[in-house]
Each structure stands twice: as structure tokens, then as C-alpha cells.
Amino acid sequence: MIAILSSPDTFQNKSEMEKIRNIIKEEGSGIIHYEVKNFMDIGEALSRFQQCNVNAIVIVGGQALSSATFEYMIDKKPFGAAQIPISVLSGDDEKFISQSFGATSNHPHKDLKHILLKHKTGRLLDHLVKAPLIKVEGVMHIGKLYGLYFCAGEIVSRKSLFKRTLHYTGIRQVIQNYTTIISLLYKAYLGTRHSDDINDMIRINRNQRGAVVGRYFMVLLSSLDWIFLGTKFPDKHKSETLNFLSVENTKDAIINTGKRMIKGNYGEKLIPGHVITEIEHARLVFNKQFVVDGCFYETDLSGELLISAAEDLTFIRLD
Fold this sequence. Notes:
The protein is α+β, with helices and mostly antiparallel strands. It is built from 8 helices and 16 strands. Helix 1 runs parallel beside helix 5 and helix 7 runs antiparallel to helix 8.
């Protein structure tokens, strides 16, 4: 059995949800589909999945649905000690995480069709990846949420970077990535400036070490092995840690970042204005938006976020 968890409210285009339903009907038996109307339904859905002894779960929806599902699986453990592989297909513009695990379409129903075909032929679980979730506490109107990728800093103002389609293949997509990187860094280079305005500052405390305060082009914490646009982190030494990268908002730091993004691999070489390492937790203080899994959030009134590595989950790679 394969389980599909979806939320119709995720999709602005209501025809997308109808296409998803039609694909599930076409594929026939061996599928249990649960549509949640609110997040209180997630517990009942996962309980049914456990009773049906499913061997994989496909989440079809936005970051809010996946975060709530991750939280329930960690806190309530509906499958006991079992690790049920998960595939995440994001809704509408929130393609960031689904494409990091090999989704290649602008439309979730097409990736779902691919998943069900692999399930039917017994190949769905051929490529599994374990990754620790990121727990973010201090989120405005939410409190805490779970995800796989966190980003803050000046780069967050370039919203199209997190909304665009990522990880396509072919020469046209490679060119598109290069032009996006060059445009992004050129605008960032021109926009660098020194400022004592506290609203432009981020205070970072890594693993309970002394705090560092500065203006940053980007601050990333990620369970994924890439930064964005295909640029890879160095291989992690510990599986339970999070990748951490900070880049100061200076011209030299931005130029060095551009070189590594175009190269496609950050490497472990020490670079002035950069910190790249592995951490278990961090405390950030700032008063601007941030991104989790391609979705935008704000800090609460204190401006303080506690970000930590949570339990591992097992994810399905489609490529």
C-alpha cells in the first residue's frame, strides 16, 4: 500500500487537485488517499495509514502541510519506531523541497503519476535518503515549524529565487541557472553598504558559542546537500548535524560566493567573510523575513529564533 496525504486548500488552481484525484483513480488499487480539511485531520490520516500497513507516504501540498505532518510523526510517532519513507510534492509555487528530491515538473499531478508508476513497478523505494529535520522555534503566529531548509539575510528579498523552478536538466536549464546566479550577485554587489541600523543586523550564536553580530548576504541552515541552484555543500562528517553557511554582506564575500555558485560546489576552503560548518543548533536574532522550505515567514515580537536538528526522517528520491 502507498498512502497519499493532500490538502485541497493548498492549491490556488483548483483544477490541479481534480487532476490529482483523477490520477489516483486511474491507478486503481493499492492506494489510500486522505484529503485533510484542517491540520487536526492529520492525526486521523496517519492513524489510518498505520492500520493499512502502508510502506510509503506521499505528501501533496504546501510547506504548512508537510511541516504539520513532520511534527505529528516526530511528537506522536504513529508508526512506532518504524521509518516510513516520505515523498514531498509541493503545491503551487512552493517547489523548493520537492525538486530537491528529484521532482521535475511544474505540476504536482505529473510528479505523482511518476511516483505511482515507480510504485507499481516496485522501484519507488530504490533511492532513500535519511535527513534530520530542522526545528524552528519563535515563528510569528505559529510558534514552531519543521522543515529541511532555512534561509535568512539580504538574499531573502530576492523572492523569485525561492519561487522559481529548480533542478531541471538540459543545457537550457544550466544557462538559466547561470544567468540567475549572475543577476542575483550583480544586484547584491551593487546593493552592499555599511549600516549601523540594528534592523539590518543578524545576531548568530552557533552551538552555544559566543554571539556574532553583522550584516549578512545569507545565512543558511540545511539538512539538504545543496545550497540552491545546484551548488553543493561539502560532504557532512556527521549525519545528525545541519549544514551551516553564512556570507557577510560585503563585495569581496559576494564575489567569492558567486565563484563557488557558478562552479557548483562550495568546498571546505576557508574564505574571508564566510563560515561553512556543521552544527546541531543555532540562535538567531533579527527582525526580517526568513524562508523555510521555500515559504516565507516572520520572527515573533522578540525577533529570536532557535533552530535545532530534530529527528531523522527517511525521504524518497525520484531521480
